[in-house]
Amino acid sequence: MANREPLLKPVKIADLRPTQMTVGYREVAEKRRRWQSYDAEKKRAFLGAHMVPTLLGPKKRHYVIDHHHLSRALYEEGVEEVLVTVVSDLHHLAKDEFWTVCDHKSWVHPYDETGVRRDFHDIPKSMDSLKDDPFRSLAGELRRAGGFAKDTTPFSEFLWADFLRRNIKEKRVEDDFSAALEKALSLAKSGDAGHLPGWCGPSKG
Question: The pTM is what?
Fold first, then answer.
């Protein structure tokens, strides 16, 4: 069991390393809107309650294994630091061994914005370098709309994003997000989605 020890000292968001290649920019924008609606006191409370889980990797850099969207949103909002929880200390490993361990423990998702697996060296080195995957935004909205349940499977929303990518044209997502969501809701209730985490079963009737 890995110890989860909150650091007493905050870490600069600019120094955080991603373990994935993309985020959904619509998701990031929504988190920014929510943050902007908070007053100063609520912002302080929010930051205290939302620690970012990281791995301590080579050169004692912090590698984020969740809350990429939140970290990117806070960075864009000018927040300089966040509190982190170190899930596992792997700083003694060589870089290639570090990524191999991450891969086996499902702590890394090296897939680009087209859903193609890439080399670990292609993973961006900063939160502001993460690319947009519109289907990750669609998957996030699909879950909020009740299309599937939140699940503990690592990167579950990326699995849904890849499923949607195979069944909905990207132009439809970009040109008419509401229509794409309606199509996604229909797909989510089909048996074709039955292998995905959080599947809620076929639609009745």
Answer: 0.91
